[in-house]
Amino acid sequence: MPPNHTQHHACLRLFSSSSGKQGGARPTSDDALRAIQEQERQGKPTVIKDPTKSRFHIPWGDPEFYDTTKLDNELRRVFDICHGCRRCFNLCNSFPRLFQMIDEDADGQVEKLPSSRFKEVVDDCTLCDMCYLVKCPYVPPHPLEVDFPHLMLRYRAVENQAQNVSAAHIQGTSPTVDSPHRHEIFPVDEGIDRQLTLQPLPIGEKQLLHTDRNGLLASMAPSVANWALSEKNQVTRAVAEHVVNVHRDAALPKFVGRSKTFTKAAVAEPLSPNPNAPAFASKRKVVLYSTCLVNWNEPDIGHAARQVLIHQGVHVEVCYPECCGMPFFEAGQLGDVAQRAKDICDSLLRYVRDGYSVISLTPSCTIMLKEKWPLLLPEDRGVGEVQAATFDIAEYVMDIARKEGINTEGLRPLKSHVALHQACHSKAQNVGFKAHDMLKLIPSADLHVIDKCSGHGGSWGCKKQCHATALKVGKPAARQAVRIVESQASSQQNSQSDSPLPVVSSECMLAGQHILQGMQHLSETVAAKVERSVHPIELLASAYGFSERTRSTSESNRVESLSG
What we know:
- By secondary structure, the protein is mainly alpha-helical.
- The protein contains 28 helices and seven strands.
- The chain is globular, with a radius of gyration of 24 Å.
């Protein structure tokens, strides 16, 4: 329990929404405290099994949400709780920076910390949600009602206040702040500066948010785009570093040509569901929301998912209206996210209302459809319908395995061991490690789990001021991957085996790519033995004997060789 508990109890969270919260009306602080005390008296644990169901909606349409005085009070209240708890010390860099700032620069007292320093903590947050979901004991319905990542999001939204309020007015969206403690003031020492440092993204850096537009442009001349974005091209990367703030050494995804994008290729080759599969009789139908990364950069993931699902007897359609808005969400441009959510739902609802499930192929996009959109638009019926129908790809495959049984026809063991990383936004879905469960369906699968943060954090890890920190945060994951590859290489050498070396796999391809870059910093020799990170669904497709379609011949042969 943090110090000054009575003070914190009297100074609760400064914004919340009772009108739109799922599961009923917002409990009062006293009700929550009495319930927790009663559980403690009975010796029952007070751990929240699924904190996402108690999460408050984001009242981004209410001008009071952007009140800098209230924001400053809430930042100090939460920072004081975190400083007294410190359970999140080993997560992202926000917490070590916060604790060091308070301990060394403010004599251990938040009251002495100038508000101008808060942005340093905000800028280090990747919005991975791990503190909220895994570490924090004070998330709702605890009376302290701490939601650290969404408080960081609120700060960024305030930096984009004019744009967000204007969008809310145009869209007619205005969930209101409703908290009896919204006027509480956190005390500070006399003379302490309470002026927040607010800096919206520069125009150049804002261009990175438009991943769908950027993908379209790059697909028109992919060889030129990939040449310019290569880390080996120090001239163009130096220009990009100056103009759009992308670190010149950060690994970036490669682009494919327009005819090879997932949506174009899928339309060009219709596939029918396998009538002999156990799930065929259930008449399952899915629409793959391909996401920007899969459509423009990693279409093999989409092809693998489509082939696996067709083989299970599932009817598959493909839909990609536009980006889900995750880059805009990370930047605090919530009005843009809300508009994209509405537009995409307009496209997906005709499928959902015809009995289709929605499968998102990138974990960060899945979390947008499942949680972030409903928190931004709690009263939008269409958003709620899409949320209820959305699955992660591994989650859906395991749903088939549990209910109808997986189709084992053609399923062969993998020759290679797998270093399997669980991305943060996969954990944040609170469905378990479904990628691990899915790969265990492959006979004799040898999986080595990397349960550590990759350090990438979406576009955060590519930025000039963040890349070195991203490599530092991801170093434990990279080190574990190096050890797995080294161990297997040593075993093969001793046994004189010619089996492929372990493959690095992650549901988030950006995370996997970042782990590979971290491996290069630790051991170029070991990293050279791993060409690229592979999505788990690609491994399952390989075990079925399905070939890849859009990569070079050498890379296709490499992945195909993983199955026996």
